[in-house]
Structure formats: C-alpha cells, structure tokens
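Because discrete structure vocabularies remain unfamiliar, we reproduce here a specimen of the format, pairing a chain with its fold in token form:
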Amino acid sequence: PEATFTHIAAMSHFGRTVSFVSQPTLRDVFSEVEKGSCHYGVVPIENSIEGSVTNTLDLLFESDLKICAERYQTISHDLLSKTSTLKDIRMVYSHPQALAQCRRWLEKYLPDAMLKECSSTAHAAREASKDPGAAAIASNEAAQLYQLEVVASRIEDAVRNTTRFLVIGRESVHRTGQDKTTVMFVTSNVPGALYKVLKPIADTGVNMVKLESRPTKHENWSYFFLVDIEGHIEDPDVKETVEGMRELCLYLKSLGSYPRGLAQ
C-alpha cells in the first residue's frame, strides 16, 4: 500500500515518474507481475534486525518470476497519532516486523498500551487516524497521507535498521560485472547431502554470501535451501558452479542474476 516502506523502496529504485499499483498482500504483488498486469513488483526479503521475510521466501519457491534487482532501504519508524502526547495513547497499531523492531522503545515509553498487528504500516496509520487514543508505527510519509502528528521520531531499537527489497519480473537481466545470483534447491534427506551440494561453490572459488532453509510444506521435515552467490550466471565460474550443484540436487532452480545493491 501507499506510504509503506515497500512503496518507499519502489520509489527509491524506479523514481517517481512511473505508475505504482498498490497491492494488499505480497501474494498479490507476485500475481500481478505473473499475469503481466505490472512490469515489476517490489517485495521485502530480509531485515537486518528481524531476519528474513518468510512469506516472500515461500512465494519465490512457488513462483517462476525472476529476481531483477535488489534495493537496501534504511528503515526509520515514527510514532504517529491524532494526539500529540504519549499519555493519551492506549493502542498502538503496526506491522509485526515494525512492532518487533521497536519493542524496547514501546516497553519503556508505552508499557500499558495494547499492541495490534496490521497487514502493513500504512494500514496501521489508517486505523490510528480513526481513533484519537490510538497510534501507529509507520513512516513519515504515512503521517502526511493520513493527517497524523509525529509524536516521536526514529523509535526503532537499532540505529542501523535496514531492509533488503527485491525487484521481481518475468525477464532475465544481463550481467553488469557487479552481480549476485540466487539459487533455490532441495537435497536428499541423507547424511552429507547439503555438504555435497555446496562443495562446487568452494571448488570454483565463488563467494557464498547467504544460505537459508525453509520448510517445503509438501512434506513434514522437508526443506528447501536458498543460497546467494557473487557473480552472474553468464560468468563461466558461476555457470559451472550452478550446473555442478544441479547434478547433486533433487530439485534446483535459479531465481535470477541481478545487479548487487549497495548494502547499508
């Protein structure tokens, strides 16, 4: 939705001259791009404090869309309300990740307030705009959109709070020389299986920058793995690495090669 941090990341990446189409859920973002209704979608993949956005990981597993780019966005949370004083606030709305990122501040300054989870920070701001005794943790842009006052600024517990966003689309992206490749795979459930699949990465000297697992949801205690490696699939060493991994997996797909974002 408009004024969420995903919307802000999309504007930072594409500029303000393109048409943005808000969607209520991450699944809807994937669906609109898959149908061709939108050229690209922007989705959060991980936060520097709270870790991965598991819903996005699961949707990448299900989808045939490619990762076309990544964007690191600094996240700064404000407390927004119709009232200008903390003592009048009885309820705080926000997305679960935002509530978690401001946990210590809330415990210190609003220990008696009820916390209510919402689907997005923009939804939280909309709810807070209806009740003078409520507040929302959201962006400064949301304050302007819903005519709310900024009661407190930068209330996140960690100063270096950054979220990594992915740009997803239907087309592959050519190499730039500063790229990253993301691969998703499933191994056999036998001793040493993961070690064997990752060995080609070490053998070719490619740098692995991320490794994560998620349940496949098709069978209990069955997992898929997601790995980020430096380089583009058009690079000979990366291509050799991925093909070597493919031979050792039950299932492997490349989610795309794309320009590396500037980490913050």
Observations:
- The chain is about 30% helix and 30% strand.
- The radius of gyration is 20 Å.
